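Z., the sequence and structure:
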Amino acid sequence: MRLGRNVVILFSSLLAVAIAGSNLQAQTQGSDSVAPTPHAKTIHLKHVLVIGETKGFEHDSVPDAMAAIYNMGQQSGLWDTTMRTDTELLTKKDLGRNAKNLNYFDLIVFASTTGELDMDDSQKKDMMSAIHDDGKGFVGIHAALDTNYKWPEYGEMIGGWFNEHPWFTFNAPIINEQPDFPAVRHFPHEFVKYDEIYQPKDWSRDKVNVLLSLDPTKLNYDNNPRIHRTDHDFAVAWCKMYGKGRVFYSTLGHTEESWQDPDIRKMYFEAIKWALGMTEGSTASHPRP
């Protein structure tokens, strides 16, 4: 009887060890079969600085333009946006206070800025150096052409200056001259947009790549003293290089409603991507079609 009891105890002990070993093996196999937690994918966001300072005419659409660029970056996940209505960050100086400067940003956007902006000589030098030497991008929206008339390098960088809008806001007949360029490839060859088209001065087609222009055969020239270009060459959008920096400008975006137009939003979205170096597009000039 005692022997039988000892056998039962031994059997029970062996069974317990076997069960424990089985459970341990199952746990080990289970842990091996579960894939390790993947590392979070790091997305290197670009940094965009939008300036909306106005020292002259104040467009009602400035907030719409700034908000659109912010939303484009957030929704696409391609860039973050810092929006300012002053020019403090347009410098390479260390500002302290966790303030960013031009060394941080990859792209500068002037959203219908007007007049002589509050920038001292060192800021102007830093901004041109950031674009020309460091290869930062620049995108000018509408009244960015109506800005900094006393700063020759600015006009050289962007391509010219505002010289009135002969037809004010009207149904502008536009020709797509470069349908292979990322910012305008979604436009048809000919289309109409209700907007205010600037006439540029100190501007030459052979110094930029004209992307969009007014159709000269569909414009009214009668009794219009605001028309100053005798060649009737009215560019609507262009791109160019300024040293190492990519520069894009368009006169489109005057009205608040234009920023609800998916065509206009897509144009600036693709222009920003191009200016950031995310896509490719030629800046070579071409003859007027």
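Residues 46-162+236-275 form a domain with the Rossmann fold fold (CATH 3.40.50). The mean pLDDT is 88.

Let me know what you think.
H.
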